[in-house]
Request: fold
Amino acid sequence: MTQLPRPSQLHSPYGTFDLSRYPFRAGETLLAWCGADTLALEEVHRRAIAGARILVVNDAHGALCVALQPQALWTDSMLAVQALRQNERANNRPQTPVIWSTDAPTVAVDLVVLRVPKQRVYLEYQLSELARLLPTGAIVLAAGMDKHLSPHTAAMLERYIGPTERLPGKRKARLFIAVRDRRQVVERDVSATYYCAPLGANLDNLPNVFSQDKLDAGTRFLLEHLHLAEPVETAMDLACGNGVIGLVAVKQGLAENLVFCDESALAIASARRNATTIFPQQSHSFQFHHGDGLAHYAGAAAQLILCNPPFHQEHIVNEFAGRRLLQQCSEYLAPQGHLLLVANRHLDYLPLLRCRFSDVKKCASNAKFTILSARKG
Ligand SMILES: C[S@@+](CC[C@H](N)C(=O)[O-])C[C@H]1O[C@@H](n2cnc3c(N)ncnc32)[C@H](O)[C@@H]1O
Reply:
């Protein structure tokens, strides 16, 4: 039976909306908006910029777009778009056009409402593209929760956009208002490259990609245990980031075909770029799926899934995001298919795996990580 989200009501100057988070979680206690969203909505309304053409950036669950009905949402996240669509349906709102983070926005805009992202380089990338887009006098209203904001946010807005005002904080959130002036667009190379020894090649990483400037310790531990998997026709790198795990699997001859899957558009673009550069003769063997895990994946079932699952939802560290992906694996793996994953030691996926798979084993562990192996019965 499909479980339906239980919405809460957001009272905003633009009306009252029923909003729920995506993905659905039984017993959810978190709201689909935060103090930064409500502060931003109040400030846009207070400024009453009649007929302003608005671009929303990094809306998490659709609260900003459902209220403001902007020209477009600029985002990296498929989960955010799923949340937005769910909340638009619930409130009979038309669909907001989506511009993926991999494209520079080209819509005419007078006002940008931006939720400050977690990664500094990603913010710099977005501000640099916005500076290119915005006419003189256009406003960037940036909002964030105090505990997530860096002390450099105002300086970055000033550097890329123009004169910036830091408004007094409220509801543990803060707003910055930057006005685009005539300063030159700051060109900044926001991709990062590191040499990956197990691959014997450089990996190129776009902004907002996991562990952008070095091989993650958990990933490294999984790569040291890829010998536990037998070669198959089709393997999947689920939650692929820059594609490192799948690419090492290809190098070791573990799979003829590899499917890379991630919810981040920039992760998929990085994986595609790395696969094309490192294995130029094998492009026909690679597929790229930008999606919420395997929820809408319609390709062939894989005999092997390799995964370093996400261990947080936005800023909150927990097992939920990883558990969902592992549940999906139990549905999408081919019969007798093999799941090999690395998990932070404190995240206990064993009960879930035992319930959904057979032949579940803890194969190795070190001070921080565990390697788990499971078969579809
Ligand atoms: C721990 S990182 C691993 C990245 C890469 N495999 C590595 O080892 O460097 C987890 C990845 O999961 C992705 N992710 C989070 N939730 C997801 C979802 N629902 N569907 C697909 N990917 C997701 C994140 O974008 C991130 O790239």
